Amino acid sequence: MLRRVLAVLVALTVLAPALYAQPVIGVKKTVVREMDVVPGCSYNTTATVTLIFDGDVVLNFTDYVAYPEEGDVASTEPPASSLVTGNLRATTWRNLNVTKGYSLKYSVPSRSLFNVSVQLSADGKPLKLNCSSGYCVAQALKAKTLEYTLTVSAIDPLLSKLQLPISVSWSVDPAYLYPVAYSENPQSVRESGTEVSFQWSSVINGSYSLSVVFEIRGENPWGEVAVSPPIVTVTLDPRVQAALMSRYKSFMYKFLESNLGNLTQLEENVTQLRDLLYNLSKGFGEEASMLESAAGQAEQASSYMFTAAQQIKNLSGRAGSLRGEAAAWLQNASELVAKAKEALGSASRNASLTDEKVKKVLAALNSSAYVNVSAVTSLIEVSRNQLGEVEGLLERYKSILAEIEGLQGQASEAAENLASGAQRLRLMSSMLREAAYNLRSLSEGLARAASLIDSSLGKLSKLGSSSVMPEGFDEYNRTFYSQVAVSLTPGVELRTEMMGEVYYFSLPYIKVKRSVPDVSGVKLESPSRRVASAWPLALLVVFAGAALALGKRGSRQSSPASEEALSRIRSLKERISRIEVGVGA
What we know:
Mean pLDDT: 76
Structural class: alpha+beta
Shape: rod-shaped
Number of helices: 9
Strand order of the largest sheet: 4-7-2-1-21-19-13-16-15
Low-confidence stretches: 1-21, 524-535, 537-544, 547-558
């Protein structure tokens, strides 16, 4: 019993993945958008979708196509429905029996994503193209060269921001046209006796233009030169652009490393240079501030020195006037002292009276005054001595005034020196300010250089970390990768693999009328004569037809009269031949 239970558990364990696993059907999908271009007419674009299934199942599913337009669906299997929802078109099939390798193809109207312009010039002059039913006609009599200009530009803003790969291939018959000049040299040129083929591979960066100049070498019997259109395709598959961007990034790294060396070491060196420039900028800025402070102090000291010099000049002027007045006063005082001294000397010499004589005189004068002659004499001597001292002081004051006169000259010289020093200080202040300005400018320039290097360093560091895809590519990527096939059958999942998305331009075939056939040698006959000369021939042709019919009927019956009928037919043929020769002559 236990063995049976274990066997059942083992069987369930083995079968469980098969019972509960969800079948996955792979779908490979390609989208080709074909745009019919006729100059002067509206564009007609069709998206043709090919789905290849990898599995055997009866399937209900919906397939999505971006950039749709309203219109009917053409499909190898009629869909159940097809609706435009936003920027996608959902086309649904039900109960579709698919097998491994089964292919489903359908077409829907699509939005035109590009503007296309075709211009033709003959000998430098533009031609007017008359287009209808997929081809155009122009006239350029006796033209020697034709210039074909093709311009493709993106209509959708999302596509105009991206670099889309574009391929242009062209083949012409060298007996009629031969390329002699290009606006862009082709990547490949192949020439044989009956064909010249050339090809360009480039990118549309918003728009793309190409011009080719052909030399006209011949024309057909109707005097026309046939210009075959180029084959133009634009790749919309985001994987191709991603690979292209990765290649560009790889080439850029190789170019940088070949010219700049190791990028990591370069980044370290640039970082050190940036830090050095920042430090130098800071140091020069501090020195500029110090010089500005010193310039301000020198200017203030100069102002003080100018004020002191002015005051010394004022004091010197005032001292000069005071010195003159004092000298006059001293001179007057000296003269008065000299006179007083002389008077005292005379008084001393004349003082010969004694006290007794004085008393008698006073008594005779009936005066009660008392005079001490010796005291007066002593006073005179003391006064004379004092006057001598005063005279000495006056002489001393005169010498002091002489010294003051010398000091006055020194003061004026000192004031001039102070003013000159103040002027030098002011000049030095101006020079300090100019030096500070230059240092400040140098500091700011170093700071800007450091900032620029820092910005470049940031861009360099982003090369390895940033996404290779340009702005808007994520939306572009989501738009095209949303074109998936989704299963509506329970238990069945579809895994859609985008095989590619291309845009093909169907350009018009152009005929250029270059010459008019020469009909001057052809003789024109009147209508009546042409009818008169042609009716016997027409009658004989009718008889011959009837005879041939009778002959064929007779040959089928194998009657004896058939031989006679055949001989009549031969004679009629001979007569017809002779008549044709006569009419031709």
